[in-house]
Amino acid sequence: MSTHTVSVGNVEIISLLDTPFELPWQIFFPERSESDFDPYRELYPDSYGEGRFRTQAGCYAIRSQGQTILCDTGIGPGPIQFLGGIRGSLLDDMRNKGVPPTEVDTVFFTHLHGDHVGWNLSADGAVNFPKARYLVPRADWDYFGKMLETNPQMRQVTPLAEKGVMDIISGEQTLTSEVTTYPTPGHTPGHTSLLISSSSERAIITGDLAHHPAQIDHVEWCSSFDADAATTTETRRRVLDQVEADGLTAAFCHFPHPFGKLVRLEGKRVFQAL
Ligand SMILES: [Zn+2]
Q1: Ligand 1 center to residue 182 CA distance, Å?
Q2: What is the Å distance from ligand 1's center to 210 Cα?
Q3: What is the pTM of this model?
Protein backbone atom coordinates (compact mmCIF):
# COMPACT_ATOMS: atom_id res chain seq x y z
CA MET A 1 0.00 0.00 0.00
CA SER A 2 1.16 3.52 -0.69
CA THR A 3 -0.33 6.98 -0.57
CA HIS A 4 -1.75 6.63 -4.07
CA THR A 5 -3.79 3.58 -3.09
CA VAL A 6 -6.63 3.17 -0.60
CA SER A 7 -8.63 0.08 0.32
CA VAL A 8 -12.38 0.34 0.79
CA GLY A 9 -13.37 -3.03 2.13
CA ASN A 10 -12.27 -5.42 -0.60
CA VAL A 11 -11.98 -2.69 -3.23
CA GLU A 12 -8.68 -1.07 -4.15
CA ILE A 13 -8.67 2.50 -5.51
CA ILE A 14 -5.50 3.77 -7.16
CA SER A 15 -5.11 7.49 -7.85
CA LEU A 16 -3.55 8.40 -11.18
CA LEU A 17 -2.02 11.69 -12.27
CA ASP A 18 -2.16 12.86 -15.86
CA THR A 19 -0.65 16.29 -15.24
CA PRO A 20 -0.74 19.23 -12.85
CA PHE A 21 -1.70 22.58 -14.38
CA GLU A 22 -2.42 26.17 -13.40
CA LEU A 23 -4.93 28.80 -14.50
CA PRO A 24 -5.51 32.44 -13.58
CA TRP A 25 -8.05 32.76 -10.75
CA GLN A 26 -10.18 35.10 -12.87
CA ILE A 27 -10.59 32.48 -15.58
CA PHE A 28 -11.47 29.64 -13.25
CA PHE A 29 -13.53 31.60 -10.69
CA PRO A 30 -14.59 34.81 -12.48
CA GLU A 31 -17.26 35.66 -9.91
CA ARG A 32 -14.87 35.49 -6.96
CA SER A 33 -11.92 37.64 -6.07
CA GLU A 34 -8.62 35.92 -5.42
CA SER A 35 -8.71 37.22 -1.84
CA ASP A 36 -11.84 35.13 -1.18
CA PHE A 37 -9.53 32.13 -1.21
CA ASP A 38 -6.96 33.60 1.20
CA PRO A 39 -8.51 32.07 4.36
CA TYR A 40 -7.88 28.62 2.88
CA ARG A 41 -4.29 29.09 1.77
CA GLU A 42 -2.73 27.59 4.91
CA LEU A 43 -5.08 24.61 4.79
CA TYR A 44 -4.45 23.84 1.11
CA PRO A 45 -1.07 25.29 0.07
CA ASP A 46 -0.82 22.87 -2.87
CA SER A 47 -3.91 24.43 -4.52
CA TYR A 48 -2.20 27.82 -4.86
CA GLY A 49 0.37 28.65 -7.54
CA GLU A 50 2.20 31.94 -8.07
CA GLY A 51 -0.87 34.18 -8.39
CA ARG A 52 -2.72 31.33 -10.08
CA PHE A 53 -5.05 28.50 -9.16
CA ARG A 54 -3.08 25.25 -9.11
CA THR A 55 -4.92 22.06 -9.94
CA GLN A 56 -4.39 18.80 -11.77
CA ALA A 57 -6.00 16.36 -14.15
CA GLY A 58 -6.43 13.27 -12.01
CA CYS A 59 -8.04 9.89 -12.67
CA TYR A 60 -8.70 6.77 -10.61
CA ALA A 61 -8.46 3.04 -11.20
CA ILE A 62 -10.73 0.76 -9.20
CA ARG A 63 -10.19 -2.95 -8.68
CA SER A 64 -13.36 -4.76 -7.64
CA GLN A 65 -14.31 -8.40 -7.96
CA GLY A 66 -11.74 -9.16 -10.63
CA GLN A 67 -12.70 -6.10 -12.70
CA THR A 68 -10.56 -3.02 -13.33
CA ILE A 69 -12.52 0.19 -13.85
CA LEU A 70 -10.79 3.37 -15.01
CA CYS A 71 -12.60 6.54 -13.95
CA ASP A 72 -11.82 9.25 -16.56
CA THR A 73 -8.88 9.42 -18.97
CA GLY A 74 -7.33 12.82 -18.25
CA ILE A 75 -6.35 15.72 -20.48
CA GLY A 76 -4.43 13.62 -22.99
CA PRO A 77 -0.99 13.70 -24.61
CA GLY A 78 -1.26 17.36 -25.65
CA PRO A 79 0.38 19.71 -26.10
CA ILE A 80 -2.57 21.69 -24.67
CA GLN A 81 -1.95 25.17 -26.05
CA PHE A 82 -4.29 27.18 -23.79
CA LEU A 83 -2.55 25.66 -20.76
CA GLY A 84 0.95 26.59 -21.90
CA GLY A 85 1.60 23.49 -23.97
CA ILE A 86 1.31 20.94 -21.15
CA ARG A 87 1.32 17.23 -21.91
CA GLY A 88 -0.37 14.50 -19.90
CA SER A 89 1.31 11.26 -18.90
CA LEU A 90 -1.57 9.08 -17.73
CA LEU A 91 -0.55 5.90 -19.55
CA ASP A 92 2.98 6.05 -18.11
CA ASP A 93 1.58 6.72 -14.63
CA MET A 94 -0.71 3.71 -14.97
CA ARG A 95 2.18 1.44 -15.93
CA ASN A 96 4.33 2.83 -13.11
CA LYS A 97 1.56 2.09 -10.60
CA GLY A 98 0.95 -1.44 -11.84
CA VAL A 99 -2.28 -0.78 -13.75
CA PRO A 100 -1.38 -1.28 -17.41
CA PRO A 101 -3.92 0.07 -19.92
CA THR A 102 -4.43 -3.48 -21.23
CA GLU A 103 -5.86 -4.48 -17.82
CA VAL A 104 -8.80 -2.05 -17.95
CA ASP A 105 -12.21 -3.73 -18.39
CA THR A 106 -14.36 -0.61 -18.12
CA VAL A 107 -13.67 3.08 -18.74
CA PHE A 108 -16.23 5.26 -16.96
CA PHE A 109 -16.51 8.99 -17.66
CA THR A 110 -17.72 11.29 -14.89
CA HIS A 111 -18.46 13.75 -17.72
CA LEU A 112 -17.28 14.68 -21.20
CA HIS A 113 -15.05 17.71 -20.62
CA GLY A 114 -11.69 17.67 -22.37
CA ASP A 115 -9.66 17.03 -19.22
CA HIS A 116 -11.56 13.76 -18.59
CA VAL A 117 -11.57 12.05 -22.00
CA GLY A 118 -8.11 12.89 -23.35
CA TRP A 119 -6.46 9.46 -23.53
CA ASN A 120 -9.30 7.47 -25.12
CA LEU A 121 -7.61 7.18 -28.50
CA SER A 122 -4.02 7.08 -29.67
CA ALA A 123 -2.71 9.45 -32.37
CA ASP A 124 -3.55 6.88 -35.05
CA GLY A 125 -7.12 6.52 -33.75
CA ALA A 126 -6.81 3.17 -31.93
CA VAL A 127 -8.36 2.75 -28.48
CA ASN A 128 -5.79 3.06 -25.71
CA PHE A 129 -7.69 0.61 -23.49
CA PRO A 130 -8.13 -2.24 -25.94
CA LYS A 131 -10.41 -4.60 -24.01
CA ALA A 132 -12.59 -1.95 -22.35
CA ARG A 133 -16.20 -0.92 -22.76
CA TYR A 134 -16.54 2.86 -22.43
CA LEU A 135 -19.48 4.16 -20.35
CA VAL A 136 -20.84 7.62 -21.22
CA PRO A 137 -23.59 9.40 -19.23
CA ARG A 138 -26.54 9.93 -21.56
CA ALA A 139 -27.21 13.57 -20.65
CA ASP A 140 -23.60 14.49 -21.52
CA TRP A 141 -23.72 12.53 -24.77
CA ASP A 142 -26.83 14.46 -25.76
CA TYR A 143 -25.50 17.83 -24.53
CA PHE A 144 -22.02 17.75 -26.09
CA GLY A 145 -23.19 15.85 -29.16
CA LYS A 146 -25.24 18.93 -30.12
CA MET A 147 -22.16 21.16 -29.97
CA LEU A 148 -19.50 19.15 -31.76
CA GLU A 149 -18.08 22.23 -33.47
CA THR A 150 -17.27 23.97 -30.22
CA ASN A 151 -16.22 20.84 -28.31
CA PRO A 152 -13.13 19.42 -30.00
CA GLN A 153 -12.69 16.94 -27.15
CA MET A 154 -15.58 14.97 -28.67
CA ARG A 155 -13.07 13.73 -31.26
CA GLN A 156 -11.91 11.50 -28.40
CA VAL A 157 -15.48 10.29 -27.74
CA THR A 158 -17.60 9.92 -30.88
CA PRO A 159 -15.19 7.37 -32.48
CA LEU A 160 -15.91 5.09 -29.51
CA ALA A 161 -19.51 4.86 -30.66
CA GLU A 162 -18.45 4.24 -34.26
CA LYS A 163 -16.16 1.42 -33.10
CA GLY A 164 -19.02 -0.16 -31.14
CA VAL A 165 -17.18 -0.07 -27.80
CA MET A 166 -19.31 2.63 -26.11
CA ASP A 167 -22.35 2.16 -23.87
CA ILE A 168 -24.61 5.05 -22.93
CA ILE A 169 -25.74 4.92 -19.31
CA SER A 170 -28.17 6.85 -17.13
CA GLY A 171 -29.37 6.75 -13.54
CA GLU A 172 -27.71 4.44 -11.05
CA GLN A 173 -25.92 1.58 -12.77
CA THR A 174 -24.21 -1.32 -11.07
CA LEU A 175 -20.68 -1.80 -12.44
CA THR A 176 -19.87 -4.51 -9.89
CA SER A 177 -21.87 -5.27 -6.75
CA GLU A 178 -19.41 -2.92 -4.97
CA VAL A 179 -19.33 -0.04 -7.49
CA THR A 180 -22.38 1.98 -8.57
CA THR A 181 -22.79 5.08 -10.71
CA TYR A 182 -24.46 8.03 -8.97
CA PRO A 183 -25.75 11.01 -10.97
CA THR A 184 -24.46 14.35 -9.63
CA PRO A 185 -25.64 16.84 -12.27
CA GLY A 186 -24.81 20.53 -12.56
CA HIS A 187 -21.17 20.83 -13.59
CA THR A 188 -22.44 19.18 -16.77
CA PRO A 189 -25.96 17.81 -17.30
CA GLY A 190 -24.80 14.20 -17.11
CA HIS A 191 -22.07 14.60 -14.49
CA THR A 192 -21.93 11.31 -12.57
CA SER A 193 -19.97 10.10 -9.54
CA LEU A 194 -19.03 6.58 -8.46
CA LEU A 195 -20.05 5.11 -5.12
CA ILE A 196 -17.93 2.31 -3.71
CA SER A 197 -19.28 0.14 -0.90
CA SER A 198 -17.60 -2.98 0.42
CA SER A 199 -17.55 -4.70 3.82
CA SER A 200 -19.31 -1.72 5.46
CA GLU A 201 -16.72 0.77 4.17
CA ARG A 202 -17.71 3.43 1.64
CA ALA A 203 -16.09 5.92 -0.71
CA ILE A 204 -17.14 8.28 -3.48
CA ILE A 205 -15.26 9.46 -6.55
CA THR A 206 -16.85 12.80 -7.22
CA GLY A 207 -15.33 13.88 -10.54
CA ASP A 208 -15.67 17.67 -10.75
CA LEU A 209 -18.16 18.14 -7.93
CA ALA A 210 -15.56 20.61 -6.62
CA HIS A 211 -12.36 22.00 -8.16
CA HIS A 212 -10.74 23.84 -5.26
CA PRO A 213 -10.93 22.44 -1.71
CA ALA A 214 -12.28 25.79 -0.43
CA GLN A 215 -15.55 24.77 -2.15
CA ILE A 216 -15.97 22.05 0.48
CA ASP A 217 -16.80 24.93 2.84
CA HIS A 218 -18.27 27.34 0.28
CA VAL A 219 -20.46 25.04 -1.80
CA GLU A 220 -21.99 28.09 -3.52
CA TRP A 221 -18.68 29.11 -5.14
CA CYS A 222 -18.97 27.98 -8.75
CA SER A 223 -16.31 27.83 -11.42
CA SER A 224 -16.67 29.13 -14.96
CA PHE A 225 -16.80 25.49 -16.08
CA ASP A 226 -19.96 24.68 -14.08
CA ALA A 227 -22.63 24.62 -16.80
CA ASP A 228 -25.56 25.24 -14.42
CA ALA A 229 -24.51 27.11 -11.28
CA ALA A 230 -27.78 26.64 -9.38
CA THR A 231 -27.93 22.90 -9.98
CA THR A 232 -24.20 22.54 -9.31
CA THR A 233 -24.56 24.30 -5.96
CA GLU A 234 -27.58 22.26 -4.94
CA THR A 235 -25.89 18.98 -5.89
CA ARG A 236 -22.61 19.95 -4.25
CA ARG A 237 -24.36 20.88 -1.00
CA ARG A 238 -26.49 17.74 -0.89
CA VAL A 239 -23.73 15.28 -1.74
CA LEU A 240 -21.03 16.85 0.43
CA ASP A 241 -23.42 17.03 3.40
CA GLN A 242 -24.02 13.31 2.94
CA VAL A 243 -20.32 12.52 2.51
CA GLU A 244 -19.55 14.39 5.73
CA ALA A 245 -22.43 12.87 7.70
CA ASP A 246 -21.63 9.32 6.64
CA GLY A 247 -17.85 9.66 6.90
CA LEU A 248 -17.16 8.51 3.35
CA THR A 249 -13.68 8.61 1.88
CA ALA A 250 -13.94 11.20 -0.89
CA ALA A 251 -11.92 11.60 -4.07
CA PHE A 252 -11.90 14.72 -6.28
CA CYS A 253 -10.22 14.59 -9.71
CA HIS A 254 -8.83 18.14 -9.39
CA PHE A 255 -7.56 18.14 -5.80
CA PRO A 256 -3.80 17.73 -5.38
CA HIS A 257 -4.34 15.13 -2.65
CA PRO A 258 -6.32 12.25 -4.13
CA PHE A 259 -8.22 10.98 -1.07
CA GLY A 260 -9.64 12.60 2.05
CA LYS A 261 -12.42 12.95 4.60
CA LEU A 262 -14.68 15.94 5.20
CA VAL A 263 -14.33 17.17 8.77
CA ARG A 264 -14.96 20.32 10.82
CA LEU A 265 -12.00 22.46 11.83
CA GLU A 266 -12.33 25.85 13.53
CA GLY A 267 -15.78 26.47 12.12
CA LYS A 268 -14.95 25.43 8.56
CA ARG A 269 -15.81 22.23 6.75
CA VAL A 270 -12.47 21.06 5.39
CA PHE A 271 -11.01 18.37 3.17
CA GLN A 272 -8.58 16.42 5.34
CA ALA A 273 -6.23 14.47 3.09
CA LEU A 274 -5.63 10.83 4.02
ZN1 LIG B 1 -12.36 18.62 -14.91
Answers
A1: 17
A2: 9
A3: 0.97
